[in-house]
Amino acid sequence: MLAERHGVSTAAGNAVAAEGADVVLLAVKPQVLPTVMPELRSVLTDDQLVVSVIAGASTRALGDGLGHPAIVRSMPNTPAQIGQGVTVWYATEAVTAPQKDRTRTMLSALGREFEVHDERQVAMATAVSGTGPTYIFLFIEALVDAAVHLGFPRHVARELVLDTMQGSAAFALRSGRHVAELRDMVTSPGGTSAEALYELERGRLRTVVSDAVWAAFERTRQLEGRLEGRGDGDRQRR
Description:
Number of helices: 11
CATH architecture of the largest domain: 3-Layer(aba) Sandwich
Strand content: 5-15%
Radius of gyration: 22 Å
Shape: elongated
Distance between the termini: 49 Å
Number of strands: 5
């Protein structure tokens, strides 16, 4: 069905699919990885590039499990499905310059791509940009519900909120100004924005967001530890 719908080659097994490929993309759930790696270990060749989009799968765990040195660890997010994602990636020393160029070309098709030279930043990106759409979708849902509570029909509330989110993000990108400055532009003394901000700050919005991001980061590190055989992983302390 996939071959007919998308005009691509398909294979019944992972080993067969990897044979002869320039790039082997690993895109499975973390708990499935220990089953997949032994299937690929015997067929990977030195000139192949392995690109992983698996949360919590470090290059150490992948390198040990696959017996292969040329690995790119990446973390995209769901807007990549419409070409507006952001992907943070890290390459091991064995990845050649042409392979890096190929990685950039491939990931840029999903949106923006950022190479980092500290693998820990991929775990950090998992908690920020990778998980970020979850935070934003929840805020959108809460704002839509609030608009409905005010009296808007839900379909109108949805459009108002989505257009406001999209416009605000585009304005922030294009203006180049600090977001605090942009916020001040619409916050008049004693006005509606000032009143709303007071309630958000009183509700500890910043602290809750920070705690959520940190929890996601810790979870990523726990997944790393388990895949590397370190039990629950190294829990980070603030």
